[in-house]
Amino acid sequence: MERATGHSDQGATGAQGALQTGLWVGALALTLWMAYLRWRTTATAPIGTDFEHYLAAAKEVAAGKSPYLIQQYVYPPTLALLLAPFSHASTESVWKFWTAFIVGAPMVGIAAFVSLIKGRNSWWLRPAALALCGCTMFDSRYYPLTRDLVLGQSDTVLFSVIAVSAVAASKGASRLRGGMIGLAGLIKVWPWATALSVMQPGVKDRLRTLVFALAVICVAPATALIFGWSGLSGFITNDFHARQQNLVSDSVWSIPPLLFSHSGMAKPIAVSTPLHLLLTAVLAAWVITLLAVAVRTASDGALGTWNVTFCIILLLPVSHRQYAICVLPILWWWVVLSVTTRAKDWRVLAVSGLLVIWWLDQNLAWPYNGMSHSIAALRFSVPFVGNLIACTVSVAAARYIDTSVDNLDRSETTGELPDRLARASLTRSL
Question: Where are the strands (E) in 41-135, listed by range?
Answer without folding.
Answer: none
